[in-house]
Design brief:
The chain has six helices and two strands, in the order H-H-H-E-E-H-H-H. It has helices at about 15, 20-25, 40-55, 85-95, 100-110, 115-125; strands at about 65-70, 80-85. The longest helix has 13 residues, at about 100-110.
Length: about 130
């Protein structure tokens, strides 16, 4: 078996790629294709997307991250993945699960009581 050699010299650096509009970064998305669960970890899915889009896959924190249009974290189908930001990820979550924040708050209040949010707020203030 001949090993596959991936040339990285002609790849678009991820910071440069992230300068494209969201519409262009999602232009390869095909929602009609099925999810593909290869048992990959995030690092592997990042590599798959990088090869698919001819980009690099360096970590950029919240400025460039792997996002799933299918909302399936186990999916590795490059037609469901795109490079996006944390802000875009949050917008996707609010669009697809509009009541998620309220539901999470309700569960926490039910589990920890009314003072939970006061305690968490005080902890956050003390950390800054």
């Amino acid at each position: 078996m001949i090993p596959m050699i991936i040339h990285t010299s002609d790849r678009v650096p991820l910071p440069k790629y992230m300068e494209l509009s969201l519409e262009k970064r999602q232009s390869h998305i095909n929602s009609d294709s099925p999810c593909l669960d290869l048992g990959c970890i995030s690092k592997d899915s990042r590599a798959l997307l990088a090869v698919f889009l001819n980009t690099t896959a360096e970590k950029m924190g919240t400025k460039g991250m792997l996002l799933h249009t299918c909302n399936n974290p186990k999916c590795s189908n490059p037609e469901h993945l795109y490079w996006g930001t944390a802000k875009e990820n949050l917008a996707d979550r609010h669009r697809d699960y509009p009541n998620l924040m309220k539901e999470n708050a309700r569960r926490k209040k039910e589990k920890w009581g009314d003072d939970y949010f006061k305690v968490m707020g005080a902890l956050r203030k003390s950390e800054t």
